[in-house]
Amino acid sequence: MTQKNESFNLFDGSFPSNICVLTQDGTETNCFLRPSGYNYLNPYGLSLTVRYYATFHFMNAPMYMPEIPKGEYKLSYHGDNPPGCPLPVISHVNPSPRLLKLAKEVDIVTPKQICLIDASAVSEQSRQILQGMNSASWRETPDKISIVIDSNVCHEGIMAHELMHVWLDLIEDYEDHRRYRDTSNGKNAFAVISAQSFVLDCMVQKRLKERGFSMEYFTRDLVDSLYENAVAAESGVLPHGSSVETVIARLLSRPWAVPELFDLGNDDWDKIRYAKRIFKKLMPDTVYLSKQITKLFKRYNYESKSEMPRLIDEIINLHFRYIDEPFELSRDLIMTHDQITYSDKFPNKLPNVPPQIKYEIHKRLIRDKLPTGTKVAIEWINGNLHVKFILQPNSIGDRQAPKSEVVSIWGL
Ligand SMILES: [Zn+2]
């Protein structure tokens, strides 16, 4: 291991690694090992502090990229592979008020602690595998919500996106908890999870837009990926394999399926149409798949909780047909369960109320946009817990009327 000097311009967008390591197979790779307590500013203006290093056993996303043949793929870190290796847990020190509001709303509806994990400490090869795989795991560990990002290239939008996945599940019950039955089958697990996030991401972006987050980064991401893939294809570099083609088909359907979630200007449309033209010439089946996906978005409303799973099912079926793998929804998908321990984050509030009810009360306050200052009264009637939300006169918020509401949450 050789130590390099950490001298770089924080604002030029380049973040040279501070460590060079030799991996098990003898290749040299770069990674970022910042000591605990170290504070740095990333190119997007996020001020970040390394708090400590910890080992994680989570990761709900299969760490697999389809163009790398199975068996050859390796996530290496000091010659070891995550999730068995220690990764830095970081703090975002200067969040914007809107990001802070979102994080707080997630924090008060669950006993779990939000943990920001930095993937920049894994080797360069592994970061390439991880790219685009920012993830949130909130059901796998009883006491933690793990948000994995690469701190060198992370902007507010990425952080908000991952938090919004958790928010949507906990507060609006909007998520698909099914997974491919055999997680060791990376290709098939990827087909399922990528179809699910493709649909779920629409609602995530919609809610973020409503909260005033910029759609700029996601627009750039979409347009650049399509454009760069088309340029590469035109020069003879075609995607490896059908799984990658499904990724391109999904991207290509986006501008027609959900244009409202992007800020697409004329230049963007020029690039998108150019990409479509190239793909149509070189990969007509992929363009046909993208059209089928767009049609599904016209048939099913991704915002509807009853139609969203149907939309996901149909896209999963299309994917498996495209990659030519046998698949049956009822046989190959299993339900995952939330691992949770109900510790009390708010011991001083409503002291005689079980913690899970406190979290339910907070969910209700957020979901119904009840104004700050709304009072909560608890009553036990015939073994049932009744929760009264009492709006206060002249309260500031979406709902102004001074009236009380009784909400029976559940009997105990
Ligand atoms: Zn997402």
Overview of the structural elements:
- This protein is an alpha+beta fold and 412 residues long.
- It has 3 domains: 1-173, no CATH class; 177-340, no CATH class; 355-411, no CATH class.
- 40% of the residues lie in helices and 17% in strands.
- It is built from 11 helices and 14 strands.
- It has helices at residues 97-107, 124-130, 156-172, 186-210, 216-234, 241-257, 266-282, 284-299, 307-323, 329-332, 355-367, and strands at 2-3, 19-22, 28-31, 39-41, 47-55, 86-92, 113-118, 135-137, 144-149, 178-180, 333-335, 375-381, 384-390, 404-411.
- The strands form 4 sheets. The protein has a 6-stranded mixed beta sheet, with helices on one face. The chain has a 3-stranded antiparallel beta sheet with strand order 1-2-3, with no helix packed on it. The chain has a 3-stranded antiparallel beta sheet with strand order 12-13-14, with helices on one face.
- Strand 8 and strand 9 (144-149) form a beta hairpin.
- Helix 8 (284-299) runs antiparallel to helix 9.
- It starts with a strand and ends with a strand.
- The relative contact order is 0.09.
- The model is unreliable at 1-14 and 58-83 (pLDDT under 50).
- Zinc ion is lined by residues 161, 165, 197, 201, 204.
- Zinc ion (ZN) is lined by residues 161, 165, 197, 201, 204.
